Structures are given as C-alpha cells and as structure tokens.
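User: Show me an example of a complex going from sequences to structure tokens.

Assistant: Sure. Here are the input components:
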Amino acid sequence: MDVFLNLKKKSDAELMSMIRNGNKEAFSELYSRYSTRLFNFFFRMLDKDQGKAEDFTHDLFLKIIENPGRFHLQRRFDTWVFHIAYNMCKNEYRKTAVRNEYRQSLGSAETVSEQAGGSRHDILRFSEALDHHLKMLDEKHRLVFLLRYQQDIPLREIAEILECPEGTVKSRLFGALKKLSEKLTVFDPKIN
Amino acid sequence: MEDSLFNQMPGLQKLLETRSFPELTGSEQEEVLKVMNQDAYDAYHEVIMQSKIQFGLEQKTLAPDPSTGIKLLSKMEGRKSRRTVLWMLQELFTIRIPAYQPAFVLAVLVVLFFVLKNTNHETIRYSARTDTVYLDKKTPTDMQTANQPPSEKAHPAGTGIKASNKSAHSATKNEHAVHFQNDQYVMNVYQKIQLTSRSKCGQSAADDSALMKFLVVAN
C-alpha cells in the first residue's frame, strides 16, 4: 500500500525512469494518470469513434512499454506523450482520409439543417452543437483548441508538441475560437 | 488580421479564459474595447467556459476499457524478461556527455594510430634484412653429393668396356663438381634459381621444366 502511495507522489519523469527498469507499478500509475486524458483526446480527434480511441490509447501505451528509452528525462512527459498522440492522429488522417469524407457528409447535413429553419436549432443543446462544430473545424484548429481547453496544456507547450512557433499556436487558437463562437451564438441566449 | 488578436494583445487570451467582461477592471475593459466590442468578448468567453465544462464532463464519463490496462500490464511482464543487449545499447545512447569528451577521445585515437603505424614500419624493415641473410646459406646437401668420389665397389676394375666407360664418366662428373665449387658466382646463381624454383615447384609446368633443363646442363 505504501508503495502505491509513494508512486502517487512521484513525478511523471521519475515514473518513466522506473518503467525503464521494468517497474510494473510505475506503469500502472502512469497509465491511471494519462489513459483517460489520452482516450478523450483521441475520441475528439478521431471523430468520436470510441473503438478507435480505445485502440489508439492502447497503441500509445504499448509504445511507451516497448521504447521507454525514447523519453528524455529532461523533457516534460505530457508534452512528449501528446506529441506522439498528435503524430498518430496525423498518420491516421493520411492513411484513411476519413476526415475529408466525414467533412463532406457533415457539410451536406448542415445544409439540410439550415434549410429546415431556426426552430430546429433551439432543440439542440450546447454540447451537441459543440460536437458538431468541433468536427467541422480543420485538424490544426481543432487540435490546438482541444489541447488548450480539453487538456489544459499551456500555449508554450502546445507549440512544443506541434513543433511550431507560439505565435502560430495563438493564431490558430483564436481562429478556432472565432469560428466556434460564430456558430454557437445561435444556441446560447447569453451569447446572443 | 483578426486571427492574430491574441498576438496583438498578449493578455487577452488569459482574460478570456478567466473572467467575463463585467468582471474585468476598468483599465482591462478599456484595453479589450480597443480590439473588440463587448458582445464579441462575451461570445468568446462563453465558448471557452462552456467547452471546458463539456470536456470536464466527458472526462468523468468517458474512460478506456479497464481490460486495456490489464492487457498492457501483461505485455509489460512479457517484456521484462526480454531485456537484452539491445536494451542496454538503448540505455547507452540515452546518456548525454559534453562534446569535448568524444573530441578528446577521437584525438587520442588519431595519435595512437600514427604511433602504431610507425612502429609497424620498423618491423617490416627487420624482416627484409633477415631475407638477405637467408641468401648466404650453405650449399644444399644434394650439391655436396656431386663432390663425393665414385664408389669403387659399385664399379670394380676389369668388368669390361662398360665398367671403364662408367668410371670415365664419373671422373668427368667430379671435374664438373670441382669446377662448380670453385666458381662461387655460379654456385650462388644456381642456389638462387633452385630456391626460386622450389617455391614455384608444381605451380606451372614451365617452371619445372626450366629447372630440369638447368640441372641437366649443369650435370
């Protein structure tokens, strides 16, 4: 029991160091810290596909088990792990090109709902609208928005994850915010 | 241009994430109103707040299947016993050292290389000398047999014309041998050819026949 309590106090880097030496408990602790966060990230990035999110979370942790040496102890663990997650999503987009097909289908669905009139919008709750419009965002804007507001990662670290300047991250974040607020004002009387 | 509002007003992003427009101080409100109106600020603030709430709820309800964690742990157990040389090498590559250290080692290796190279030259010269010494060896034993006097038992006197002819023939052989012994230059040449031919012996028919021809003529 003491072992688990001690592990809770340890930093991510310390846990990674222990995982390198084959410590199972350390891996278990790290998994409990990040599995839900990563699962939710994949869930949103992969168009709310729960099965895929599950597989991607599994694969990412498997990478950690197989190559713990790739993590440099000087680096922040969350930056490193989300960088891997981001690359996995990028590869997935490239591989399947699902994203474009999905966007096309959404585009047609949106046209239909707009034609149906404003009364239909009133029925939708904010969460559903957010889901819908987040999917409509392009990957770059959606990624920055999720990393900032879902994962609560500072802009400087997001820049590290995406390997781009902080100014670019700020622009993308504001772009995402602007697009979402334009769409979501319809549903929220406060915003209107 | 509006896309870079966060870059234009560095504090704007933090204000949007933490406080609504009425919660801002007078100076902050003034600063904000320079770049956008109150409605726009409220809209952005509301989207951020609602999204955070939405994502927070999701994190509580959405979690990976517990069996995933168990599977991963069992895989880790499997890996534990397979820690090999590759693992050790990977560990080695993660070690970081200052740049001057490998540079110093490289310099030492270069110096060592040149020192050892010079030492090797000395050895080669020495072996060359031993080769020349080898040439001053004594005449091989098969040449010595030519100097021996002909055996009387093998050719006793009075055995007829054939016997006298044989003894006469061996006499000329002796003369040849004496002549060879006296002429050191010819002996050395003979010896040299014989040594060369020994090493080449069997390599080609031409070498063998050249040696045979020489031996026949010499005899």
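The lines above are the inputs; the final block is the predicted structure for all two components together. Residues 86 and 162 of chain A are 8 Å apart (CA to CA).
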